[in-house]
Input
Amino acid sequence: MPLIVLPDDEHLDRAARLLRDGELVSFPTETVYGLGADARNVAAVRRIFAAKHRPVEHPLIVHLADASALDRWARVVPDAARVLGQALWPGPLTLILPRAAGVSDAVTGGEDSVGLRVPSHPVARRLLERFAALGGDGVAAPSANRFGRVSATTAQHVADDFGDEVALIIDGGPCPHGIESTIVAMTEDEPVVLRLGAIAVERFAARLGRQPAIGGARAPRASGSFASHYAPRTPARLLPSAELRQAVLRNPHGHIVVLAHSTAQPPSFEGVWFDAPAHDAAYAQELYANLRALDALAADEIWIEAPPDGPEWSAVRDRLRRATHRG
Ligand code: TXA
Ligand code: MG
Output
């Protein structure tokens, strides 16, 4: 069985030593749990890909104890990147920057760029600081889930996916955002948002003096940008609020489970009905736990009430589109 431990000094020291020795350690961040390895140790980084069953050309994010490490990892740091880092780090922002000499292809998936972020979760910070104290320089960590599957927002989710393939899982409780970092590429003249996430894109405009572009054909590889990703095993589909109630009433006995947020469960419906929070941040925080719990019921389908249209729901809409994509 994997070892789930509390984030006390003794366990954090042990986790830092395991990372130094090339082992995998899972740790909480403010977004989702990460599956970490020493970013300067190619063999350790390769173990992440093996454990996740992730294709090797998909780059990882390097987690740094503080922004002063930026120049060791990036060969060019545009002013706009420093502005965003200063304003939003520590926090759920990932910057894609031209990689510095010596940053391995194992981390970057062969890209000439590298993803960097300074997380704000106190447990992640304490672990990164201890790792740095042992001479470590950055922890490469994707989300701690099997490739293409729903991200992990509790220590138990990580244990469910990886069993004893990870040396240690540090339990920091449920992740406060529950949805991944916002990724901004700073490799061209203009910043491009590659993945919507925990920081609303609107917040960049104030700092950059303009709204950054979203997506774009020239965006480098990002596995989170695949049409089908973050997906439960059970087929899942989105239904507009107005249709959900009718669809359920037409199908009261089918083995359907429902994730609603504003529609009330019709009394005649006999299946499992989750009432998710109606507020965007609370909904996002519980989203992956809800999808995992509904998936575990092995229903024929998961029906998800489509979230509202507002900009504050855009990252949730993005994840649900991918979770419900077929094909
Ligand atoms: O919130 C998060 O970002 C979490 C926590 C653990 O920090 N991490 C996370 O990692 O979501 P992952 O590997 O599941 O997703 C990172 C995304 C991937 O889609 C990857 O392709 C993209 O970042 N990425 C990383 N480096 C990149 C690069 N150099 N160019 C383009 N995309 C990159
Ligand atoms: Mg992921």
About this structure: Residues 142-143, 151, 224 surround magnesium ion (ligand 2) (CB under 6 Å). The radius of gyration is 20 Å.
